[in-house]
Amino acid sequence: MALEGSLKDFGLADILQLIFFQRKTGVLTLEGKLDRIRLLVIEGNIIAAESKRRIEANRLGKVLVKKGLLDEKTLQSLLDEQKSTNVRLGNILVRKGIVGKDDIEEILVGQIKETVIQIFGWKEGSYEFTPQAIPLDKDIPMSIDTQHLLMEGLRIVDEWSLIEGKITLDTVFTRKSEDIFELTGEERDIFSLVDGENDASTIIDLSGKDDFTVSKTLVSLIEKGNIEQKETLPVFTEAPVIETKTSLFSFRFLPVLAITAALVFSLFPVFFDTGHTLKRFLASEAIDNLRFKVETYKFERGSYPDSLDVVSGEKDPWGNAYRYGHNNYTFMILSSGADGKEGTEDDIY
Fold it and tell me: Model-level pTM?
C-alpha cells in the first residue's frame, strides 16, 4: 500500500525518517509547483534522484565539460547514444572508460544532495511512496545515508534565511568587476567559476562545496559589486521553513527522535517484550547520539573517523560494540541486537 499525502501535513523530514527507520525500498515521488522529483530508495537510503526540470544527463555532461573531463563533441555523441539506448550517461562513460567512476560518483552524489535539499524549501506539494524492488546500479553503486542528508538539509534550512530571496539555483551570473584584490580566497575560487553561462547549481557542482556556502559567497560577490545576475528562474522563492511540529529531526530534538524510533520499532510483535523493547529503545537513542558525535568529528576535521572508538567506546545494551563503516560520502552505525549477529532482522540502525 502506497504512503501518500500533502507536504503541508507531513513534511519531507518526517517522510524520510519513516522510510529510513522502517528500512523501506521503493520510489518516493514529490510534486510541487516547480518540479516533480523521484527519489529511489533501497533499505531506507537514497540511491538516486530524478528531476523533471533538471535532467541528470544534461547536468552531469555540463559539469564534466566545465571540468575539462569531456569535450562538447564527445558529449553530444554520448547524449545521442544515451537517448537511443536509455542507458544513463554516467554508466556509458564508466563502461567506455572515458571518465573514472570516482569522478562520476562525486558529481552525482552532490547533485542528488542538492536535489533533495531544495525540496525542504517547498511550502506546498504532494508526496507518494510506492514500495517496489529497486536494482542497485552495478557500474556506479551509490547510497546516501538518509540521517546524514537530513542533518545537512535541516542545517541549510536554518541558515538559508541569511540569503532569502537573493539568488536561486537557476540564477546565472556575469562578471561586473575584475577587481579581486579585496576578495577572500573562497570568494576568488567562486568568482573564477562565474562565466556568464554557469548557473548557481553548476557552480556548486564545480566547486565541490555545499549549497549554502556557495550561495552565501555568491551573495557576497554581488554585494561587493564583482558579479551581477544575468537570469533568474526561481526554485527557492522564499526561505525554506520547517516547522517544529512537523520536523522531528534536529540536534535539539534528538531525544524526541529516539522516542519516535522506539514507537516505530514497538509496532512489530517481535518487540513486545518490555525488557527487549527498552533495550532497543536505548540502543536507538545511543546510535542517534553517536551519529551526532561522528558528524561533529567530520565538521571539525573534514573527514569521518576511521573507527568509532575515536569518538566513543560505548557498548550497546547487550554488551557488544556498535558496528561502524564509512566512505567519502556517508557512514553507517548499527547495533547487531540481541543475537549479536550483523545482517539479521533484529539489527538496529
Answer: 0.52
